[in-house]
From TrEMBL:
<dbReference type="GO" id="GO:0046872">
    <property type="term" value="F:metal ion binding"/>
</dbReference>
<keyword id="KW-0479">Metal-binding</keyword>
<dbReference type="GO" id="GO:0019251">
    <property type="term" value="P:anaerobic cobalamin biosynthetic process"/>
</dbReference>
<feature type="binding site">
    <location>
        <position position="148"/>
    </location>
    <ligand>
        <name>Co(2+)</name>
    </ligand>
</feature>
<dbReference type="Pfam" id="PF06180">
    <property type="entry name" value="CbiK"/>
</dbReference>
<dbReference type="InterPro" id="IPR010388">
    <property type="entry name" value="Anaerobic_Co-chelatase"/>
</dbReference>
<dbReference type="GO" id="GO:0016852">
    <property type="term" value="F:sirohydrochlorin cobaltochelatase activity"/>
</dbReference>
<feature type="active site" description="Proton acceptor">
    <location>
        <position position="148"/>
    </location>
</feature>
<keyword id="KW-0456">Lyase</keyword>
<feature type="binding site">
    <location>
        <position position="179"/>
    </location>
    <ligand>
        <name>Co(2+)</name>
    </ligand>
</feature>
<keyword id="KW-0170">Cobalt</keyword>
<protein>
    <submittedName>
        <fullName>Sirohydrochlorin cobaltochelatase</fullName>
        <ecNumber>4.99.1.3</ecNumber>
    </submittedName>
</protein>
<feature type="binding site">
    <location>
        <position position="211"/>
    </location>
    <ligand>
        <name>Co(2+)</name>
    </ligand>
</feature>
Length: 268
């Protein structure tokens, strides 16, 4: 068995219980990676126990966690694992993922963990341009993205992206988060000086799952849509995860290619 035959790609995602967005995002990322690197078998693992249990109970679908996937890779005779996470940032989820993956490192010749979506300056600029091309907001419209947010130091990426939008001339594109310091309440103060005719909300998350459906566009009083409408703004919502956007998926392909290149260098 040659090096290629002994190498596999493991795609690790948080997961989602929403079937429609799963097919358009996580499964589309996996499909693109499979077509980009058809010589390597592709495995899947999800990290959310709650979502995995829900899918098992509701749909009878079993999705491996990291430990199960690494055990399966070993059983299948794989010697080199290239891990591609589908996280947006390198936060707590990423830290936990790396710890769990590397706990199995002794079972393989090489374990390469590729970058999440946004790590380098190039990554951030490509995502910025992808968002502008995907949504191209009107001049009298505010486009507000909902990121997840975290207490992790990686949370600084969200205001960094907000500044990057402005740097590239997209003054009406803004970033907020569900958690952390960049809440919808803090954005309301900014809005008073912007006077937009419309506000367009879109998720800045790989999947358009629970946060996008409920926290962003839900009918409850505490959703972003409801809060903004209560302030008198005209609001529309787009339930489209980042994973639906080809330019975003292309970044994951680039990161996986870089991981495979690193593996080749190690084995040279």
């Amino acid at each position: 068995m040659g090096v290629t035959e002994k190498t596999a790609i493991l795609v690790i995602s948080f997961g989602t219980s929403y079937e429609e967005t799963r097919k358009k995002t996580i499964e589309q990322i996996e499909s693109d990676l499979h077509h980009a690197f058809p010589e390597y078998p592709l495995y899947r693992a999800w990290t959310s126990p709650r979502i995995r249990a829900k899918l098992q109970k509701r749909d009878g679908i079993h999705i491996m966690d990291i430990d199960e996937a690494m055990t399966q890779l070993k059983a299948d005779g794989i010697r080199n694992v290239v891990v591609q996470p589908t996280y947006v940032i390198t936060g707590f989820e990423s830290d936990s993922m790396k710890e769990k993956v590397l706990a199995h490192k002794k079972d393989f010749d090489s374990v390469i963990i590729c970058d999440s979506l946004m790590v380098t300056k190039q990554d951030k600029e490509e995502v910025c341009q992808a968002m502008a091309q995907e949504y191209h907001p009107d001049s009298d419209e505010i486009l507000l993205f909902m990121g997840h947010g975290t207490e992790h130091v990686a949370n600084e990426l969200y205001p960094e992206m907000d500044e990057l939008f402005k740097h590239f001339g997209y003054s009406n594109m803004h970033m907020g988060t569900v958690e952390g310091d960049f809440s919808i309440e803090s954005f309301l103060d900014k809005l008073k000086n912007l006077h937009p005719a419309h506000i367009h909300l879109a998720p800045f998350m790989i999947v358009a799952g629970d946060h996008a459906t409920n926290d962003m566009s839900g009918e409850d009083d505490d959703s972003w849509k409801s809060i903004l409408e209560k302030e008198g703004y005209s609001v529309k919502c787009t339930l489209k995860g980042l994973g639906e956007i080809q330019a975003v998926r292309d970044i994951f392909i680039r990161h996986t290619r870089a991981g495979l290149d690193r593996l080749s260098e190690i084995q040279a």
